[in-house]
Amino acid sequence: MDREPEEQTAETVRQLRALATPEGAAALSRAGALLADGVDAVAALTRLRAEVGADLAGPAWGIARQRHKARSAFGADADRLLFTSDTLEQAGRPELAARRATRLLAGGADSVADLGCAAGTDTIALARAGARVLAVDVDPVARELTALNVEALGVADDVWVVAGDAVEMVAAARGGEVAGCGAAVLDPARRAGGRRQLDPDRWSPPWSTVVELLAKVPTSVVKVAPGLDHDRVPAGVEAEWVSVGGSIVEALLWGPAVSRTWRRATVVRDGVPHELVADTDPGPAPTGPVRGWLHEPDPAVIRSGLVSLAAADLTATLIDPTIAYLTSDARAESPWVSSYRVDEVLPFNLKKLKALLRERGVGRVVVKKRGSAIEPETLSRQLRTDASGTATVVVTRVAGAPTALICDVSD
Ligand SMILES: C[S@@+](CC[C@H](N)C(=O)[O-])C[C@H]1O[C@@H](n2cnc3c(N)ncnc32)[C@H](O)[C@@H]1O
């Protein structure tokens, strides 16, 4: 029988507390070992029930699975942290949380309200960066996880976990402080019922609280959806988009006291952050004909509206005023773009494209597209033959015309 949500919450809190006992820790370590040995769920649960009891077996197995998923991001900490599947999904990358915490505290703030702490990963980063942290959440499971996690990672002396509604706390903020803290982190829940909430007014807390916090607490940072409309960014607030390994992972709004510029793209490659900044809107890049190299800007550069800065850096031009592909005479050794050598340029036509690839001995292609409705996987399948050569086919528009660029042909 399904439980009421409150009963389910109370039961999860009870289970988490049971896992924090010495018997619970032993059950977790046994579950982790079974998972590491590749024992399947049914067999593992049967063995766990026999060894640690029915009460601890299921919760221990559930947490062991989340720890296993968390390991690539959280490293050794993953084996001490507790996550539910929801809170792990909501958790940001720890290296970026540490970076945010350092920047937020650089001006001297020593107390921070983490408004919506979930499993406490921002709270931990802030405490490790030297702050006293008030960790707030409406959800009892989140508060329990944060309390246990700060204890497990040895920062509990600097953290106070409290029940509270961030909307009310921000409404009551005075004198640049919220809930008595001189700085704040707000990371609204942007999913509901397993689905992404695209409308910022439906985030929890909603957009109105985001704007109010940035206006009332100048030393603050808010995590927002990477797709946020630039028009929503309040004046005097820096917006930063961060990508790791070519994918956008977060977007941030920095309160006026910690804003340093207008827009920032932070591109993390091989663990090293590279930053492109603009104090004012740099406007569009110039457009020109396709030259020997095509450059695909990193998504953080595109989303932050800084493609023209990358273009200037590479002496490159856009291939079309509406498409974020750049072109220049030389390969770019730059974090802002990935470069492709252009071998052929032709109006997009499947028959002609096939013929040209056959002529060049290409049987396998990676398809990229921008400004085209084609399905890359479908086109890649359609272009597949027995020939041994490989290439990248870029389907896009050049000066308004549907065009295919055959790039990086190799035998
Ligand atoms: C996206 S998660 C935060 C993730 C966290 N920063 C991390 O990196 O692990 C959002 C959290 O805000 C909490 N929350 C949502 N609305 C809230 C409100 N009005 N007041 C306090 N907490 C709230 C949710 O329960 C959830 O735990």
List keywords for this structure.
411 residues; alpha/beta; Rossmann fold; 3 domains; 9-stranded mixed beta sheet; binds S-adenosylmethionine
Describe the structure.
- The chain has three domains: 5-74, no CATH class; 89-225, 3-Layer(aba) Sandwich (Rossmann fold), CATH 3.40.50; 293-410.
- A hairpin with a 2-residue loop joins β10 (263-269) and β11 (272-278).
- The chain contains 14 helices and 18 strands.
- The protein is 36% helix and 27% strand.
- With 411 residues, it is of the alpha/beta class.
- The longest helix has 21 residues, at 54-74.
- The model has no long low-confidence stretch (mean pLDDT 96).
- The chain has helices spanning 5-19, 22-36, 41-52, 54-74, 85-90, 94-105, 121-128, 140-152, 166-171, 207-216, 299-303, 307-314, 350-359, 376-382, and strands at 111-115, 132-137, 159-163, 183-186, 191-192, 195-196, 220-224, 238-244, 247-254, 263-269, 272-278, 293-297, 317-320, 323-328, 337-347, 362-369, 389-398, 401-410.
- α1 runs parallel beside α8, α3 packs across α4 and α6 (94-105) packs across α7 (121-128).
- Bound molecules: S-adenosylmethionine (SAM).
- Residues 90-92, 116, 118-119, 121-122, 136-139, 142, 165-167, 187, 189, 204-205 line the site of S-adenosylmethionine.
